[in-house]
């Protein structure tokens, strides 16, 4: 549990909204003072974290993380995954429902919520399944999950598409009662049977079954219209094509209550990487073309795409280090997300750090409804009196990425061997340091496994 920290900190950095360095004092779990260097009163014994040109962001919030517990603790646990999240600058994550057992009952979501609290690295907000067992046949107990101690607000069958339009309509109607949102994994199943990668020139040349853009776009088009029809809130997971950006832009122009996310990998990697058949690049939705990468960057910069979400999808070596066709879909992302956003959006001049705070903290917290009392003020601006959820980043640093040395329990980052800009120097969860000097601050807590609340 993260009781207010007794240690007091004074951080020096530039706020995302400004250009001049400030000192920020963290005391009793909140931001106690902000002022020009040397002008704020620094409490006796305060721990100083001062570097040149550091940026002070609100703690990052991920709307799309796979923590794999219960069921695939060989890939990740709540403990290892949230430790990786802290290392990446996050203070809250939403844990996807495709676990075993599925997060489709109040019992299971409460267990995951409790494991997150015990680990204490970041706040864990379990996502509830839309349908029982992600089978796409019967609505799960959405209300019971919403009313549980985990207070679920985001519902998703991620990994699978809620394909039946009647079920999708019912889910959208149902979650309105508690201001929830349905987060759709947009994939038309019939159009993607046996699909291995993006359908296009590369798939034709290397002989892998393609996943056409229209399989994503047709579901997004249907769902924005359904959301309009029932007057509900829709979120689109890991959007990946230029056409999807256009549909979201159209829907927002029409006043439809839709939000969308893009992953870091879709901001930078393309289907050309499949040519060597290295399954580390196999992911759902697949890496697309350079034209799609340009379109999602533009959509993120102009606000059509609301957030960057990692879709951190850890898999053990047995499931990734094999022939392309039998490898699992997915790549890790918690520890590289901020660097990829810096590289593709900030260092290219397309976004400011204030925009980064918006797409990696403020907007995801608002979509997940954790910016208020329940979320204990995640995604709030860096201001006096706010909870001290903060990430201090050094944008001038560069890092060589190696999946084997990351904090996550799995190695499947697509960025191994690459240099990325930016380094998380420190992360604070309600005033307690979870990362200092770029290293996770370990505490005397044991990783307790899931205690089988099964239906
Ligand atoms: N993104 C992936 O390729 N895989 C995810 C599922 C998902 O996000 O659809 C996983 O759970 O491994
Ligand atoms: Zn998905
Ligand atoms: Zn996912």
From TrEMBL:
CDD domains: DHOase_IIa. Substrate binds at residues 66-68, 98, 284, 315, 329-330. NCBIfam families: PRK09357.1-1, pyrC_multi. The active site is at residue 311. InterPro entries: DHOase (IPR004722), DHOase/Allantoinase_Hydrolase (IPR050138), DHOase_cat (IPR024403), Dihydroorotase_CS (IPR002195), Metal-dep_hydrolase_composite (IPR011059), Metal_Hydrolase (IPR032466). This is Dihydroorotase. It catalyses: (S)-dihydroorotate + H2O = N-carbamoyl-L-aspartate + H(+). Its cofactor is Zn(2+). SUPFAM superfamilies: Composite domain of metallo-dependent hydrolases, Metallo-dependent hydrolases. Belongs to the metallo-dependent hydrolases superfamily. DHOase family. Class I DHOase subfamily. The lineage of its organism: Bacteria, Bacillati, Actinomycetota, Actinomycetes, Micrococcales.
